[in-house]
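Below is our example:
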Amino acid sequence: MTDTIYALSSGAPPAAIAVIRISGPAAGEALSSLTGRSFEPRRTALARLRDGAGATLDEALVLWLPGPDNATGEDTAELHCHGGRAVVAAVTSALSEMEGLRPAEPGEFTRRAFANGRLDLAEAEGLGDLLTAETELQRRAAMDFAGGGFSRQIGAWNEQVLRLSAEVESALDFSDEDDVPEPDAEFRRRVAALRSELDTWLERPAAEKLREGYRVALAGPPNAGKSTLFNALIEREAAIVSDIAGTTRDVIEAPVALGGVPFTFVDTAGLRCETDDVIERIGIDRADAELARADCVLWLGEEGGGPDSAVEISPFADLAGKGKADGLSVSAITGQGIGELKAILIERARQALPKPGEAALNARQRTHLVAAAEALGRAAGKADWILLGEELRTVRAAFDRLLGRASTEDMLDTLFARFCIGK
């Protein structure tokens, strides 16, 4: 935190504009060294950038953002340069020659913002998810966390716990008297109501499911048309299509967005009971594992032969006499039924994934929220004020861990390593 760091914070060049960010105690000195002048805070200004020898590097718009009221909470400067590779290389080279400056590590700007109290851990996790969001559903879920929605919810819960704790402390002040009553029904009701609210959040689909996408496995016997349909659904030739049985030997995965919803489609080996081919047997075993893992199975085999709740598919709608009485008739060749199939999958996925704008908890957040809910459950049954107060302290500690007020360095290293350099 004593170093001053710098990095390209915009997209990789070439581009129209390249934003180079400098953050740390020497940011102001670095800006003066590059421009030979000082700047009014938070006002854009045009300046000529020069290296240590006085050679012109670029003409750029510069911003001087003194801390703590900025993104990182420490003195920050931004250079909005022309976005050519040579320009970026020249400016960063000039910065590297200044004493006390070094290139930023992945996620280091955001980590400094966290360390300086500019955002909490839940907001940082949301920002990380926002950077990797590829669908509208992922973006909207990440925005709620990055914008502090979940943090405000935790704050509201913590306020309720603090009020309950204050009543416990008040009761303990009179604990030397013989007639101190046990917690009344209204107190227990409030504890139980808060526990119920946390349970409602824990019942929501997990954030990992939203990140990975709704998993759809295509299954059936050899030569059932799985790979052809797989290619049609993802709209590219990812799987080899052949009339030879057993062509697909391994699992093929492809992520894709349909209707703003993330999916992972999985093409599997043809299923049959008997085979002397060792490699094909391995492929069949892997296919069985994928069927167990999938959120939805598209069954292209014999009617009723697929897993329960599988979507029955008749894949040869374009061929006379090849259709089935039941199931959805599609043709990857003509496109018949493909739109209807996608609509069915989108509807199923929307039921299984977090709703638009609904915050989804990741594994870390879920662990701490479970700890808080369980402590509230125990508190609701306590008659002893001292034991009840201890359980409420456990709840408050879980909320602190949710927001990163009690976090380990290893966990923080893992989180911020997800970020790109310059963020």
User: Anything to note?
Assistant: The CA atoms of residues 70 and 76 lie 8 Å apart. Residues 4-115 form a domain with the Gyrase A; domain 2 fold (CATH 3.30.1360.120).
